[in-house]
Design a protein that fits this description.
The protein has one domain (5-424): Cytochrome p450. Helix content is 51%, strand content 12%. The chain has helices spanning 5-16, 35-44, 53-57, 59-62, 71-81, 87-91, 94-104, 116-133, 141-158, 164-168, 173-198, 205-211, 224-255, 257-271, 285-297, 329-332, 352-357, 376-391; strands spanning 19-24, 27-32, 49-51, 113-115, 304-308, 312-314, 317-319, 324-327, 394-398, 406-408, 412-414, 419-424. The strands form four sheets. A five-stranded mixed beta sheet has the order 1-2-8-5-3, with helices on both faces. A three-stranded antiparallel beta sheet has the order 4-12-9. Strands 6-7 form a two-stranded antiparallel ribbon. A hairpin with a 3-residue loop joins strand 10 and strand 11. Helix 8 packs antiparallel against helix 13 and helix 13 packs across helix 15.
């Protein structure tokens, strides 16, 4: 599990069936790989499960944000944040997304080789900064991105270790590196919060967090600590997952020239050389299908863990209280029962008729149930608009002599980036 969790979980599911029990140190885990059981855990019986040990550990970085908080705290925070993610407000972010995508490629030149994973991280950092925090963080993007890489990398190397809680308390070099990286990220978030405190009343997410009150609950607002935790959660989740999804999409398009040519043809026909808008989204179905298929093969969130807070029975097996249930997008999305020839890149799998023929939780890139990603609509719009905005001007080809390997941590990053050759197309 520590050496290669993707291969390990795939092998467990294929060799031991749709429910498999194994141990990792002192922890007993159950891997589930049937859509109806995944639905049970995430939706039907969601109240019987809490977050797994990985996201409990993530509190060291994220605090009690939406990704890590439980029960009444999670419900209250989500209720106060939901207005920022209503469809009408999200549509208002489209112009900034497209403009930043256009601006991000102004420094590109034909024939250059660039790491598309790094480029997409810079871009999505700029987008989340501008749209959700009304701030320009492009000048800090490389520094913040390096800090996030450090924090997430250390998380990925340690969360599978037994007794990691004890290791966290020791003055180890990796803990000191993590603390420095966290301090760098916190510095940016603290600056943005201070700016909102001095000038309240904005329409961005951070302004809403600062001024929010729980009108359906106790009527109170968020403390500074709660604002920090939610802001850093959105800051991380709002760019990291989308950056990875986009990077893997460019990689897959480069390896599948027919799908790439069809995407360029759609973008050219719909946009006619202009920047995309929210109104264009229904007219870019192939672009959306490409993104969906990319997130099937390389799901940014590749695993979900839940801890049973009471005994459960799933698929005829007992799940004791305190044990961990694991569902894996990486495993289920590549199951040939739901996706024939699963290693093949085929956006046609996401035609409406094909989606209707599959069980609902054969595909769940954003989770599901009461803890489904609050930014799902934001991410879909951002992904499609960025792909269209860049594809109207550029074609990205794979540079030779590189070994592109997924590195599973909190998200599924390309381990050493993805170097791509830039080819200009159009004006």
């Amino acid at each position: 599990m520590r050496r290669d969790p993707l291969a390990f979980l795939t092998r467990v599911a294929r060799e031991h069936g749709d429910v498999a029990r194994f141990r990792m140190g002192p922890v007993e885990l159950h891997l589930l790989n049937r859509p109806e059981w995944i639905r049970d855990v995430l939706v039907t019986r969601a109240a019987s499960f809490h977050k797994g040990r990985g996201l409990e550990r993530a509190k060291r970085l994220l605090g009690e944000g939406l990704l890590t908080s439980e029960d009444p705290v999670h419900l209250r925070q989500r209720r106060m944040m939901q207005p920022a993610f209503h469809a009408q407000r999200i549509a208002g972010y489209a112009g900034a997304m497209a403009a930043l995508a256009d601006r991000s490629t102004e420094r590109w030149s034909a024939g250059q080789v660039r790491d598309v994973a790094l480029e997409m991280t810079r871009l999505t950092l700029a987008i989340v900064g501008r749209t959700l925090f009304d701030a320009d963080v492009e000048s800090e993007a490389d520094e913040i991105g390096a800090a996030l890489t450090t924090a997430l990398g250390l998380f990925g190397r340690t969360f599978t270790l037994p007794y990691f809680e004890l290791l966290d308390r020791l003055p180890l070099p990796m803990n000191r590196r993590f603390d420095r990286a966290k301090a760098r990220i916190d510095a940016t978030i603290a600056r943005l919060i201070a700016e909102r405190r001095r000038a309240p009343g904005g329409a961005d997410l951070l302004s809403l967090l600062v001024s929010a009150s729980d009108t359906e609950g106790d009527g109170g607002g968020m403390t500074d600590a709660q604002v920090r935790d939610e802001a850093i959660t959105i800051f991380l989740a709002g760019h990291e997952t989308t950056a990875n999804a986009l990077a893997w999409t460019w990689y897959l398009l480069a390896r599948n020239p027919d799908a790439e040519a069809r995407l360029h043809a759609e973008v050219d026909a719909v946009l006619g050389g202009r920047s995309p808008t929210a109104a264009d989204l229904p007219r870019l179905p192939w672009t959306e299908m490409v993104l969906a298929e990319s997130m099937r093969l390389f799901p940014p969130a590749w695993i979900i863990g839940r801890r049973a807070i009471e005994p459960q029975e799933i698929g005829g097996f007992d799940v004791p209280r305190g044990s961990i249930v694991v569902v894996s997008q990486w495993v289920t999305h590549r199951d040939p029962r739901w996706f024939p020839d699963p290693e093949r890149f085929d956006p046609e799998r996401f035609r409406a008729s094909a989606k209707e023929a599959r069980p609902r939780f054969a595909y769940f890139p954003f989770g599901g149930g009461p803890r489904v990603c609050i930014g799902e609509g934001f991410a879909w719009m951002e992904g499609v608009l960025v792909l269209a905005a860049i594809a109207r001007r550029w074609r990205l080809g794979l540079a030779p002599d590189q070994d592109i390997v997924p590195a599973p941590s909190i998200t599924l990053r390309p381990r050493d980036g993805i170097r791509m050759i830039l080819e200009r197309r159009g004006s």
